[in-house]
Write a structure and sequence with these properties.
Layout (H helix, E strand, L loop, with lengths): L13 H18 L1 E5 H18 L4 H8 L12 H10 L11 H5 L7 H12 L15 E5 L10 E6 L2
Antiparallel strand pairs: 1-3, 2-3
Helix pairs in contact: 1-2
């Protein structure tokens, strides 16, 4: 029996399911629109709305909570000069691997998702108070689409309510 079990399994083990949901929430915040299957859209909506509610109050604790769900690519590695400077103050310092330097220094729009959430997306809904209808939640809309060609999976578009 599955009494009081709220979430969908989506046919995946927990680690794969959480990675999928995190990636889809990132895509929703980055592009403000997400095309996926209906059950995935419902799960992504639940997670995204919780994160938006947290982001309405910009605090260190809320930023850390949201960072758990928004994965960031590594930042550019330090230069030789910066390493020498750090080495002077700490003789046991080790230089970070320069093997992926080109990838680290490339443009990654994912690095801006956290700021976008706290500065663009959440302030749109900041005027909603908890007592009003739709106060905490109701930030997204799911619109059904035609079934996917090939496996006839029900498709949906997840967008923000303006």
């Amino acid at each position: 029996m599955r009494h009081k079990v709220a979430r969908r399994k989506l046919g995946k083990p927990t680690d794969e399911r959480m990675a999928l949901l995190k990636n889809q929430v990132q895509a929703l915040f980055m592009h403000e629109r997400l095309v996926t299957t209906e059950p995935r859209a419902r799960e992504v909506r639940a997670l995204a709305e919780k994160l938006i509610t947290k982001a309405k109050v910009d605090s260190v604790a809320n930023r850390r909570y949201v960072e758990r769900y928004i994965q960031k690519p590594p930042m550019p590695s330090e230069s030789k000069d910066a390493f020498k400077k750090r080495k002077q103050s700490n003789p046991l310092a080790v230089r970070k691997s320069p093997n992926v330097k080109a990838w680290r220094e490339a443009e990654h729009p994912e690095r801006e998702i956290l700021n976008k959430l706290f500065t663009d997306i959440a302030p749109r809904y900041a005027t909603r108070t908890k007592d009003q209808p739709g106060g905490n939640g109701g930030y997204t809309r799911i619109t059904k689409m035609a079934p996917r060609r090939g496996d006839a999976a029900p498709q949906a578009v997840l967008t923000f309510v303006e």
